[in-house]
Design a protein that fits this description.
The protein has 2 domains: 205 residues, Anthranilate synthase (4-Layer Sandwich); 211 residues, Anthranilate synthase (4-Layer Sandwich), CATH 3.60.120. It is α+β, with helices and mostly antiparallel strands. It contains 13 helices and 23 strands.
Amino acid sequence: MLGKLSFEDFKNLAKRSDKVLVYERLAGDLITPISAIRIVEDRYDNVAFLESAELDQKVGKMSCIGIDPILTFYAFKESCYLERDGSVEKIEEDPIEACKKFIDSHLYKTNQKLDGFLGGGAGFLSYDGIRYFEKVEDSHMQNQKIPDLFYQVFRKYVSFDHKHKIVTLAVSVDVTKDLKKDFEKAKKTLEELKALLFHPSFPKKDERCLDKLSKKSLQTKNELTDKEFVSIAEKAKDYIEEGDAFQIVLSRTIEAEMHCSAFDFYRALKFVSPSPYMFFIKRPDFTILGASPEKLLSIEDGKLETIPIAGTRARKSLEEDDEIMKDLLTDEKENAEHMMLVDLSRNDLGRISEIGSVKVRAIKKVQILSHVMHLISIVEGRLKKGVHPLDALGKVFPAGTLSGAPKIRAMEIIDELEPSKRGVYGGAIFYLDPDLNMDSCIAIRMAQILGNKALIRTGAGIVHDSVPKLEADETHQKARGLLAALKLAMEGSL
């Protein structure tokens, strides 16, 4: 439904909270999420763009942009910081407790439920952030560019309701005694945002994508050779044979030299590999982008949901879908791994759910996406009273599909065998709305960008009957979509 927040509604909201979200809902037939983020990221150094790219009933319902952060919270190991308008303050407190306080004190309320993280915030918890919740060995050097925990609250927001073709513009207001002035200032900001998005002067093509550069071939460097990856996979199998774990998910990084903008890389990735969870988080010193197929945890009015994925097949043609689906459903190894991860998900949700509320709503269903099909299950529960969403995320984190089982021992072995920190890979991209509802995805099929280097990490689950060479091949296969997208972006073909 189209409309806007009135001054009367603003005054009523200001009686209950000193943080109010002023919004306007408009017809969205003249603007797309990609055109909007293209305009925004060309003008702002700090943006967060989360969208659903597979447009069916359960996924693809919204895209959301956060622009120009009011505050940014981030932490490296035990040191945490608050950034406001270019100044940085160190906070002497436990990072998770400090982040929860930051989240709870920056919820911008309005008079109806809006899409995505409007009035809330977005960020990520890196794989290495598990050490905020569990005692896991840490033998690698810290990456001083990309935090372990990162969360932003924004001045301006744009969201797209794909089903109803509505775009919502919103502005965060810290209420003062002069309500009329506050409201008029917010209205002016909305008008400026509307003019920027609906009457744009599009940015010129990124200089790094000029013909002289786009002719360069894609240069990559592997952190581990295939022989070295096979070697650590064999060591993982030894641990499994000795009874330390049932599964250990090992990964390695490909470093690629970029001759295009991060946004063009993202756009190409969406074209090559549209996925239920697309993300693009841009900062002056790093960018995180990806196309994840896998939800980690959602919280909606107290209802918890996680959707473990284990078992994947590439699609070939519509005519062959049924045959490929049958092969996936009857593959003993895939089914055994899947059921192990379903049990792990049930145990994880059990730690944060009301007694007796955890159930498996769907078991071993085939989800068909544009290029692949996955074997999925849906596990649900009811959030215990008093459990903060960030603590809930920590209890199910990281996903069993990115660590193994049992989780803690698998992560200890991963720390021993892998040559470097994972960073955001294997962690979580998440957002919270003003009512502390959450959605999050596993940070996979993604790139971490530092300068002109794209770090692409992929993994494979090692079990007792794994063939290490085939697991090494799987890491290459998982990187193909990202490398194809980067090549497409560098060629300037989009």
